[in-house]
Amino acid sequence: MKFFYLEPEVSGSIGDNSVMDSNVHPPLVTRLNYEFDGWMGDVMVESFPCYLVTEEAKGKILNEGFSGVAFDKVEVTTSELFDEMQPDQKLPPFAWLRVNGRAGQDDFGIANDYRLVVSDRVLNALKPLGISNALIEPFETS
Question: What is the pLDDT of residues 58-99, one digit of tens each?
């Protein structure tokens, strides 16, 4: 199986209602509020160290039985910038994608440099749903 770094669109930041321990690296987030500043339409977005997927993408991931991932609730809010620049944009429901797998072994994993690594199976499932703004590069297992 082939693996790839997947760096999704950054559509916002960790919001004020999040609970996060910044004394460790990467920061440990136990409650996530993602505040959108804009959205170009991809089914996966990020703000280090968290990833979100649309409910549609979550369903696809669950149906395919991919390893190395779990889901949690996320509070989604929009910033003044979002409201000003995209006033008619309605966001779909999102879920917090919590990666717990090993890079290069599980379908979802985090590399030593803290980047997301996914299998080619994951890419093949997500591309038709829309990840055109993500950076995708080959991952070499060492």
Answer: 999 999 999 999 999 999 999 999 999 999 999 999 999 999
Cα distance between residue 111 and residue 49, in whole Å: 12
Measured CA to CA, the distance from residue 119 to residue 93 in angstroms comes to: 25
Please identify which residue in the block is written with the tokens 């149906």.
63
Helix, strand, coil share (%) of the chain residues, nearest 5: 15, 40, 45
- β-pairing, 69-72 vs 75-78, is unpaired
Which pair of structure tokens corresponds to residue 113? 């440099």
Measure the CA dihedral 46/130/126/18, to 10°.
Answer: 20
Whether the full predicted model's pTM is greater than 0.85, yes or no, is: yes
